[in-house]
TrEMBL record:
InterPro entries in UniProt: AP_beta (IPR026739), Clathrin/coatomer_adapt-like_N (IPR002553)
Compositionally biased intervals (Basic and acidic residues): 604-615
Main subcellular localisation: membrane
Coiled coil region boundaries: none
Species assigned in the record: Solea senegalensis
Signal peptide: none
PANTHER family listed in its UniProt record: ADAPTOR COMPLEX SUBUNIT BETA FAMILY MEMBER (PTHR11134)
Domain Clathrin/coatomer adaptor adaptin-like N-terminal, residue spans: 36-546
Stated name of the protein: AP-4 complex subunit beta-1
Gene Ontology terms describing biological process: intracellular protein transport; vesicle-mediated transport
Region (Disordered): 596-619
Gene Ontology, cellular component aspect: endomembrane system; membrane coat
């Protein structure tokens, strides 16, 4: 009895100590935590109790997962891996794989235990040892791992073979520059016929990784048919892997092709979306020359795709909608009868709602336009402003084909007097009249009185554009502009100020009596008080342009008001499937942003939208080197023809400020040092001209060029292209001449060391100007006696000649 009581007391003390050790465990990250864990791991009493020892190891793993640095316990954990307890082995192996790279020398102590476990009669232990042996990822241990992996490929247990196959791929990643063992590759190819489907799929993945430099795993006819026959045995992700690998195989005859398609027919309508998408991708790669078969396959996947659109997983739903957009590019009427499946749910996130609205725009026809517009009208008042603006933009896109119905909805939305709704409606109306000029009368009546609600800069820019272009139709246009002009000092948006200048000058041309006084006040403020040089330069341009006469100003500013050539929403030709087949079942459809949602981010509709080209270096596409060689007896105004090269602008040129300054200082000096002081005193400006080679610009409209310049933050005031043809010298080539003007303007006078006033130095402000009328612009840009500002300025002009 006494012995039993003593044992009970010891047990209670042990429990109390255990509880106490938990209670007094220090905070995370302290050295006391690691010290306490080491004391417990080295305690013989704890080691003799398997349960307490496992719980102590579990505390180490918990501390590691919480961010505590327990790497100093590596040697104690190495000793703990020598056990028959599988759970304890798993915990220790997690620790060892995490800290093996920090203790490469101590990791050698684990190899003997792992190699011994590879011969354990329990297949679970063998597979666990193989997996963690390769997860150590230490190049110094490769020689000890090869023999167990080779034996694992021939193991009688499938779970061991699965781990061994993937282990060879991990081993190859550790020594990518070493020679590939042909025996191992042959062994992996032979395992493609393994009875276990997971081993077969793992062999495909391993061979594809090992033979990556040689193009991946080679697929011939026997292997392809073997994989197809065993496709149903694989799980979902195994089937996707097999179908992806089979895209490399090309049937040798038409009969073989149709045999393969017959085997894939059941997978095409699989209830699992990944399998269905992978099968359709294989169909598209096998049948590029059979459009009938391709279209039939697209029809077959309609039901699985619609079912996926109702999936509980939002990610799966979003991916399905994005891939449906791809299909609609070739089959616009594929989902026409099921347009209600794309109506938005209240609880759906904004990114899914916006994608569904883009699909609805593609499905509009005479039968469903009323219901779709009514549905979109409900989304315009969504609590999410992005969703609301996307719905309004979608109504504007549909308005290209059904303008009367859409304008009625847009006009009604203006009555809500909500800031973000009014802004989106005004921008949509601006884009709509650019494409559909017949809507201008309705729009001019609707926008009156909107200036009180508009708060954001994009909406105000759209309203100012409408007032400037249709100032003679909007009765309150001058008075609305006067409100903007009175508040120009508190205006913070650069775009609004520049749009206000242009709109006021345009209204002056049609209603001069009401606009003359306010334009004078606006020009005086922008020239004398405005600190932004872009606004000031634009005001100077308009001031000098008005000095040239009203007719000359009208030629520059009054261009076309619309561009109906952009087409309507309905009736677009279907794209060939081959244009998007390679991106199906990839992440590319998820990254694409529809053009329909981009219009609200642009300043004016003259900026024609276009697809951005990949970012390339400017030097690769535009050769602007100086033409230093001048042939004797040739006309200096005529340049020899150069090869036609596509013209593009680099969005991020690799040119640092220091490099730009170095290149600028290397330019040839026009004036000598001794004459520079004299010239600076006598002249107020300096013009220099340089000719460079540029490729020919084919079919490039002025609006497209202006849009391209704005994408790289180059603001254009006015422009033209001067075409000169000289068949005797250029043959079939023409000569295109444009002008790039560089403004250098000071903001304050400078003083020398004696305190005497001297002429200001030119600071660096770049302004791009392509003059529409050479005679007009030469007068407008001449800083003569009628200059508005008293400071001196220099005008550096470079003439770009393109052949």
């Amino acid at each position: 009895m006494e012995e039993e009581e003593e044992e009970e007391e010891e047990e209670e003390k042990r429990k109390c100590c255990g509880v106490l050790s938990v209670v007094i465990m220090p905070y995370l990250g302290s050295e006391d935590t690691v010290r306490e864990l080491r004391r417990a791991l080295t305690n013989p009493n704890v080691q003799s109790d398997l349960l307490r020892y496992r719980n102590t190891i579990l505390k180490v793993i918990r501390a590691m997962s919480q961010g505590v640095d327990v790497s100093s316990l590596f040697s104690e954990m190495v000793k703990a891996c020598a056990t028959v307890d599988v759970v304890q082995k798993k915990l220790v192996y997690v620790f060892l794989c995490s800290y093996a790279t920090l203790n490469p020398e101590l990791s050698l102590l684990v190899i003997n235990t792992l190699r011994k476990d590879c011969q354990d009669p329990n297949p679970m232990v063998r597979s666990l040892a193989l997996r963690n042996m390769t997860n150590l990822r230490l190049p110094s241990l490769v020689e000890y791992v090869e023999q167990p992996l080779t034996a694992g490929l021939r193991d009688r247990a499938a779970c061991v073979r699965r781990v061994a196959v993937l282990g060879w791929a991990k081993l190859y990643n550790l020594q990518t520059h070493s020679d590939i063992d042909a025996a191992v590759v042959n062994e992996l190819y032979s395992l493609l016929r393994d009875t276990d489907p997971v081993v077969m799929v793992n062999c495909l993945r391993a061979l594809d990784e090992i033979l990556k430099e040689e193009g991946g795993v080679a697929i011939n006819k026997p292997i392809a048919h073997h994989l197809l026959n065993r496709l149903k045995e694989c799980d979902i992700w195994g089937q996707c892997e097999v179908l992806r690998i089979l895209q490399r195989y090309r049937p040798q005859s038409e009969d073989e092709l149709f045999d393969i398609l017959s085997l894939l027919d059941a997978s095409l309508v699989s209830p699992h979306p990944p399998v269905m998408a992978a099968t359709l991708s294989l169909f598209l790669s096998l049948c590029p020359a059979l459009p009938t078969v391709t279209l039939a396959a697209l029809e077959r996947v309609r039901a699985p795709l619609l079912a996926t659109c109702g999936s509980a997983s939002r990610e799966m739903m979003f991916a399905a909608i994005c891939h449906i957009q791809l299909l609609l590019r070739s089959l616009p009427g594929l989902m026409g009868a099921h347009y209600k499946r794309f109506f938005c749910g209240y609880a759906e996130p904004a990114y899914i709602k916006q994608r569904k609205m883009q699909v609805l725009m593609e499905l509009v026809n005479d039968d469903n336009v009323a219901m779709i517009l009514d549905e979109l009208k409900g989304y315009c008042t969504d609590v999410n402003t992005d969703t609301s603006q996307a719905a309004i933009s979608a109504i504007g896109r549909i308005g290209r084909s059904y303008s009367d119905r859409c304008l009625e909805i847009l006009t009604g939305l203006l009555g809500l007097k909500q800031d973000h709704i009014t802004s989106a409606v005004v921008q949509t109306m601006r884009d709509l009249v650019w494409v559909c000029p017949q809507c201008s009368d309705t729009v001019c009546l609707a926008v009156e009185g909107c200036e009180e609600t508009l708060q954001d800069s994009q909406g105000r820019q759209a309203l100012l554009w409408l007032l400037g272009v249709y100032g003679e139709r909007v009765s309150s246009a001058p008075y609305t502009l006067e409100v903007f002009i009175d508040g120009v000092r508190s205006e913070t948006s650069l775009g609004v100020k520049m749009e206000l200048l242009t709109a006021t000058v345009r209204v002056l041309l049609c209603r001069p009596a009401e606009t003359q006084d306010m334009l004078g006040r606006l020009l005086h403020y922008c020239i004398e008080e405005e600190t932004n040089m872009s606004v000031r330069d634009q005001a100077l341009l308009y001031y000098r342009l008005l000095h040239c006469g009203i007719e000359e100003t009208r030629k520059v500013l009054q261009g076309r008001r619309s561009d109906p050539s952009l087409g309507v929403l309905i009736g677009r030709p279907a794209e060939p499937v081959g244009q998007w087949a390679c991106s199906f079942n990839t992440l590319a459809p998820l990254k694409q942003v529809a053009v329909e949602t981009e219009s609200t981010s642009r300043g004016s509709p003259e900026h024609v939208t276009f697809d951005r080209k990949p970012n390339t270096d400017l030097s690769d596409t535009l050769n602007c080197g100086q033409d230093e060689t001048v042939h004797s007896g040739s006309d200096p105004d005529v340049l020899p023809p150069s090869p036609v090269v596509p013209l593009s602008l680099s969005l991020s040129p690799a040119l640092s400020p220091a490099e730009f300054e170095r290149l600028w200082l290397q330019r040839p000096h026009v004036l000598s040092e001794q004459d520079s002081v004299k010239t600076e005193e006598e002249e107020d400006y300096l013009c220099m001209e340089e000719r460079v080679r540029c490729p020919e610009i084919l079919h490039c409209s002025t609006q497209s060029l202006q849009a391209a310049m704005q994408l790289v933050n180059i603001q254009m005031l006015a422009f033209t292209l001067l075409f000169h043809t000289n068949r005797s010298r250029l043959g079939k080539y023409g000569l295109v001449s444009t002008k790039l003007t560089l403004h250098l303007q000071d903001v304050s006078p400078q003083y020398d060391c004696t305190g005497n006033h001297r002429r200001p130095r030119a600071s660096s402000l770049l302004r791009l100007l392509l003059a529409r009328s050479p005679a007009t612009m030469s007068g407008a840009l001449n800083p003569g006696s009628d200059t508005v500002h008293g400071h001196g300025r220099r005008l550096a002009e470079m003439s770009f000649t393109t052949a």
